[in-house]
Design goal:
This protein is mostly helical and 501 residues long. The protein has a domain at 237-356 and 370-459. 73% of the residues lie in helices and 1% in strands.
């Protein structure tokens, strides 16, 4: 067994540090109302389940810190709301060190008026707090192992290579969001927190995210991670037996196959859930946009509303989203066997991975060359031609310029949403030695995906439904819950005072 595997095995807890006694828990009216609200709020955004609590912490801090910057009261308020919404179980609450949480909040509050934008200060604070609540330290050990594995297969000369690879692995393999990646970069600077380190980590994150090599390295990492994801899954399926499992090839192959089947079954449910969540999100957003903007504009500009285009604009987006998710396919038997073999190969031949074919090297393409510019012009013509064809067909149906813009807007957003959901299925897609292939559908969809990607980034800050929930509904709703919680506590005390057994 390779030395790096021994090092990984020595750092794992084998499940000893993550056990929390659950027990029977009964929830009152306050917790029920808070949970229902959170379910509705989370439907407004496309966010992976493991990122929901961090986002909730960020929302609570953003709202609370406006009125109170005292770390002690903020700590109590944060824990109360997380308990209400069931983001923290009673068992997890018992393990929370309130003094430590106060110190964490205090150091970020002191940084609010620095050079780093206040919004980012709160975001990174939420990432550190989420990690305090997450007892699964073994997950991070596999992320570090993956970084070491893929680093052997990247041969690019760049002074920021380690940073770019760390960013890609944390984002793609660990599925961390931007806030968590920025915090993990801050952790690399050491345990001592200083404003200078905080500012430097924020600059490093910005450098990694916008670096010219980030896209290329990220694409390579995505192709390399399936066997490493499976290795991690084998561990978490049965932590106590992992050391024996990776010591025997036959046992590993058998166990990995069983775990892969279980994971693919769960992934099928994840894809369905993500698809339906996106359908609901798109439908609600489309209905709101139709009645707030589309219908009034049509009447104002054209004096009437074209019924057919309006019906298509309302029904087409969720229908397209649903159909797109049905087209997503999971790995077949041959691909599953190849994935299991590759996972074992990493364990057995770790030190020789750098000598394999398929190492990422310097790009041989010259962007200033005639060929590059020729293809750039051809792509631009294809880009414009696809959207010109869409406009032509919509015009034949009777769409006005306004309804055309709305149709194209939702078409591009849905294409991007469907692409992101499709990436979930590719977590276990492994085709050893095969290069990416491009079909006619890929050529046609690329311009649509490009626009959808850029619009999606903009919409993250302009989500009307999320804005309504966060700034109009959430603050008064949580105030009502606080009053209701106090009233329930009062009734409980009063009951003990008035009723004598």
């Amino acid at each position: 067994m390779q030395n790096i595997i021994h090092a990984l095995l020595s750092r794992l807890s084998y499940g000893d540090k993550t056990f929390i006694e659950k027990g029977e828990v009964s929830y009152g009216v306050v917790e029920t109302l808070a949970r229902v609200y959170e379910k509705a709020r989370n439907t407004m955004e496309y966010r992976a389940d493991h990122l929901v609590r961090r986002a909730a912490i960020e929302r609570i801090l953003k709202r609370s810190i406006v009125f109170d910057k005292n770390s002690e009261t903020l700590t109590k308020h944060l824990l109360t709301e997380l308990k209400w919404a069931r983001y923290l179980s009673p068992g997890e609450l018992k393990l929370v060190q309130e003094e430590k949480l106060q110190k964490v909040l205090g150091k970020y509050i002191d940084t609010l008026n620095g050079t780093v934008p206040s919004e980012w200060v709160i975001k990174i604070a939420s990432a550190e707090i989420e990690e305090m609540f997450n007892l699964n330290v073994d997950y991070r050990q596999f992320t570090f192992f993956t970084f070491q594995t893929i680093k052997q297969k990247v041969n690019i000369k760049d002074e920021n290579l380690d940073l770019l690879l760390f960013y890609a692995v944390d984002k793609i393999y660990a599925e961390s969001d931007d806030e968590q990646i920025a915090y993990h970069l801050l952790k690399l600077a050491g345990n001592e927190f200083t404003p200078q380190k905080f500012e430097e980590s924020w600059k490093l994150f910005s450098l990694a995210k916008h670096h010219k090599l980030s896209t290329r390295i990220g694409k390579y990492v995505r192709r390399q991670i399936p066997p490493l994801v499976l290795l991690r899954d084998v561990y978490f399926y049965e932590p106590g037996a992992f050391k024996n499992t990776v010591s025997d090839s036959e046992l590993f192959m058998k166990k990995a196959g069983e775990v892969l089947d279980i994971q693919l079954d769960q992934m099928s449910h994840r894809i369905n859930t993500a698809g339906w969540r996106s359908v609901v999100y798109i439908f609600l957003t489309k209905m709101l946009l139709a009645f707030v903007m589309e219908v009034p504009l049509e009447i104002l500009l054209y004096g009437t509303v074209a019924k057919m285009p309006l019906a298509i604009n309302v029904a087409f987006p969720p229908l397209l989203m649903w159909i797109s998710t049905l087209q997503i396919h999971l790995p077949r038997e041959e691909e599953k066997g190849s994935l299991v073999n590759r996972s074992w190969s990493i364990i057995e031949n770790f030190d020789s991975l750098k000598n394999e074919a398929g190492v990422l090297t310097e790009s041989s393409s010259q962007k200033a060359g005639v060929t590059y510019w020729t293809f750039s012009v051809l792509y631009a013509v294809t880009f414009l031609g696809i959207f010109a064809l869409i406009v032509f067909l919509l015009n034949k149906i009777g769409f006005t310029p306004t309804s055309m813009l709305i149709f194209i807007f939702f078409l591009t957003i849905i294409a991007f949403f469907a692409y992101r959901i499709g990436q979930i299925a590719k977590i276990y897609s492994w085709k050893d030695g095969e290069k990416d292939t491009t079909s006619i559908i890929d050529i046609v969809s690329l311009p649509i995906l490009t626009i959808g990607s850029r619009l999606s980034r903009g919409l993250t800050k302009l989500n009307f439904l999320a804005f309504t929930f966060d700034f109009i509904l959430e603050a008064p709703f949580k105030l009502i819950l606080n009053l209701l919680d106090s009233w329930v506590a009062f009734l409980s005390v009063k009951k003990e005072e008035e009723i004598i057994e």
